[in-house]
UniProtKB/TrEMBL annotation:
Residues 499-535 form the GmrSD restriction endonucleases C-terminal domain. The lineage of its organism: Bacteria, Pseudomonadati, Pseudomonadota, Betaproteobacteria, Burkholderiales. This is DUF262 domain-containing protein. It comes from Massilia aurea. InterPro entries: GmrSD_C (IPR011089), GmrSD_N (IPR004919). Residues 15-198 form the GmrSD restriction endonucleases N-terminal domain. It comes from the Bacteria. It holds the Pfam family GmrSD_C.
Length: 594
């Protein structure tokens, strides 16, 4: 086999007659009968699959060494393939036998001969021989169970089963690559393989060496620039919900593959490499043109990120699960039309139709009124509505430059938080109940230090200390914690800060907001003033608090504020009305009075 390609799928038939050398830093052959059967079953499944072009095995990593190939990774697969070919040869006349590729093992020179006679009876001599013998017997057993399929398997193995041929450059360290693949267990990614396809020397045959080098350097530099940009979390999480930390350019390559009509095959880890290999191995392939298209796709995404409107529109749709590929399909128009199309994608399904205030206002109102936290199936819609409320609020004024941080929103866990506490959610363990009282005592005494609570109670003028504070302090200091008495005291505290103690639990969207899980669970079901103080402290410290969550606890949406420390039914209704108005303004801005 001769190849000028550093990366290419090659058939097993192309490996015939080759000389392979397995260096001593690799372990001996260790495949079990189960692994051998799995390989043969996969090939059989491929044959039975309609329209299968070829079946691809994992990469074989090699380094050219004179007239042979040093195997850096993949010797287990090569050895198994050699045993299967040896089995085929055992079933045919010697003059018709295949010229099976040979494997020399530096640590066990006798293995070369034993691979040709794996039933010679020496399986007890070395551990390697025992595994080789067992694998060969597994091949025989498999074909004994599939006696009519030998010819099909042989033909497929030679012509349609391929390995990803990964040839290292002369200046690459094979031991370092081996350590990465086998000790660090870091496999070659689709992106790395595709990068090799773009940079291989064979792409530029016939060109001046200096020009070839310049083109390779340009692709490599631009590739690295794109990867660095994608490593910026603010950019990355604007595009996707994926949490990958390395080779993020893989996401861009998949997008491009879908753009050119390649169907994604998530179950096949090699699909991306194979898609680009087929495209770039075409005689008419324009490697620089293909790379220019990928870079152009990146520049479009980067432009969307830099445009504040597109940043929020695309970011919201990506955050709520819309594939970016479907959004790119909408972009065959001017910017104004694209904004309209993206907003149409954001519109809740209940409000489809003419985007006029007259049409969507009643539909959105009915939708919001019907959402109920008690319905588990509504949680996703509630979360999306509250996220959309934040996006609409930030985009309402051209003078505001603040951006919604999708990276923080996606890397932190977010809860749907009840603004007014729900009695049924009171802490049910002594530890959580004690922390609940800690929050209350910290709020009423003005100190988070437990030692300061008693001093605050002792030093307070007569008549100015709340009896609830005294009772809470006594309960907090009791050992063991009097859990049976806690619900009654907690209810008294809630009633003090609730103007409507008999009101049923409010599970409407007007009583819900987005809050990071850590903060929410730290004060689980605390009374409104404690929640309010906590959120103000977080915002003051620079912690991300969504703008609408902050507005809620500042009672920004309440038309009349009688008490900043109590959340009433009127406040919840005003919050829900503000959400509704913001969405109508967002989708039909020219038709809603400010």
């Amino acid at each position: 086999m001769t190849t000028t390609h550093n990366f290419a799928p090659v058939t097993v038939g192309e490996l015939l007659g080759q000389q392979f050398f397995v260096p001593r830093y690799q372990r001996g052959y260790r495949w079990t009968p189960r692994q051998v059967h799995e390989l043969l079953n996969d090939v059989l499944a491929f044959i039975d699959r309609p329209n299968g072009s070829f079946y691809c095995l994992q990469p074989v990593v090699v380094l050219r060494n004179g007239g042979r190939w040093d195997v850096v990774d993949g010797q287990q697969r090569l050895t198994t393939l050699s045993l299967i070919m040896t089995y085929f040869n055992s079933r045919m006349p010697e003059d018709e036998a295949w010229d099976v590729f040979e494997l020399d093992y530096e640590t066990r020179p006798e293995s070369r001969a034993y691979l040709k006679r794996p039933l010679a009876g020496d399986e007890g001599k070395y551990v390697d021989f025992a595994y080789i013998h067992g694998a060969y017997q597994a091949v025989r057993d498999w074909f004994a169970a599939h006696p009519t399929r030998r010819g099909e398997i042989e033909s497929a193995l030679l012509n349609k089963v391929k390995v990803i041929w990964y040839q290292l450059e002369k200046n690459e360290d094979p031991v370092a690559m081996f350590m990465r693949l086998n000790v660090g267990k870091i496999p070659l990614t689709g992106a790395e393989l595709v990068k090799g396809l773009f940079l291989r020397s064979g792409n530029f045959e016939g060109e001046d060496e200096r020009i070839r080098h310049l083109k390779q350097t340009r692709i490599a530099r631009e590739w690295d620039d794109i990867e660095r940009r994608l490593q910026e979390d603010s950019f990355w999480y604007f595009l996707t919900n994926e949490t990958r930390t390395s080779n993020r350019i893989d996401f861009l390559l998949r997008l491009h593959a879908q753009e050119i009509g390649v169907e994604a095959m998530p179950d096949d880890p090699s699909w991306l490499f194979l898609a680009f290999s087929k495209r770039l191995n075409d005689e008419k392939a324009d490697v620089m043109g293909e790379w220019a298209n990928i870079r152009q796709l990146f520049l479009r995404l980067d432009e969307w990120y830099r445009d504040r409107d597109f940043y929020h529109l695309v970011g919201y749709l990506a955050a709520t699960g819309r594939p970016l590929s479907s959004l790119l399909e909408l972009a065959d128009c001017n910017k104004g039309e694209l904004r309209r199309r993206l907003k149409a994608e954001m519109l809740p399904p209940v409000a489809k139709g003419d985007v006029t205030a007259e049409n969507i206002a009643p539909a959105l109102q009915a939708w919001l009124e019907d959402l109920d936290y008690e319905k588990r199936g509504d949680h996703r819609a509630i979360r999306q509505a509250l996220l959309l409320f934040n996006i609409a609020t930030l985009l309402e004024s051209d003078r505001v430059t603040t951006r919604f941080p999708f990276d923080l929103f996606k890397t932190e866990s977010w809860d749907l938080e009840h603004i007014r506490s729900v009695q049924s959610a009171l802490p049910e363990s002594p530890d959580r109940a004690a922390k609940w009282l800690d929050s209350f005592l910290g709020y009423v005494t003005g100190t988070e230090d437990p030692a300061g609570w008693r001093a605050a109670v002792h030093d307070a003028p007569v008549g100015q200390i709340d009896a609830l504070c005294i009772d809470a302090l006594h309960m907090r200091n009791a050992t063991p914690f009097p859990m049976k008495e806690f619900p009654a005291l907690a209810q008294r505290i809630i009633e003090k800060y609730d103007a409507e103690p008999d009101r049923e639990a409010d599970n409407t969207i007007g009583n819900l907001t987005l809050l990071d899980a850590a903060t929410n669970r730290s004060y689980k079901n605390a009374v409104f003033p404690i929640k309010r103080k906590t959120l103000i402290d977080l915002d003051r410290s620079g912690t991300f608090v969504p703008v609408c969550t902050k507005n809620v606890f500042l009672k920004y949406y309440s038309p009349m504020i009688d008490d900043m420390l109590v959340w009433t039914a009127a406040d919840a209704a005003a919050h829900q009305a503000a959400l509704h108005t913001a969405l109508v303004r967002f989708f039909a801005p020219a038709q809603v009075q400010a």
